[in-house]
Amino acid sequence: MPVIFISAKDNTGIHELKHQLFITVTGNRVLGENGIVTNVRHYEALHQVVKSLHEIKIGLQDKVSGDLLALDIRRCLHYLGEITGEITNEDRLDYIFSKFCIGK
């Protein structure tokens, strides 16, 4: 993937970043609007991705710090990873145990 220089302050490079993300995800193919999600887990993960993206957008508009935005970005990537298969059952367990303190 090529290096893309962006600046939220100067509002530069954002279009190039979006374009590269599109090419990376779709292989530069236009996806149809009639896609069907047949896996319930994927459907739920897509809803979480949309929710995360919405929270990221609001955070960017409200000029939230990058550290806080990174949490939403990681969450979004986590759910995308569930769909693409990059997140395994072991990863899910690690994620669950990282969120809850379970005594011995």
Could you please describe the fold and organization of this structure?
It is built from 4 helices and no strands. The protein is mainly α and 104 residues long. α2 runs antiparallel to α3. The longest helix is centred in the middle third of the chain and has 22 residues.
Amino-to-carboxy terminus distance: 44 Å
Please indicate the count of domains: 2
Helix content: 55-70%
Shape by Cα distribution: globular
Number of strands: 0
The radius of gyration over CA amounts to 16 Å
Q: What is the arithmetic mean of pLDDT?
A: 78
The class by helix and strand makeup works out as: mainly alpha
Note the main sheet.
Answer: none
Contiguous runs where pLDDT drops below 50 for at least 5 residues? none
Element-level helix/strand string: HHHH
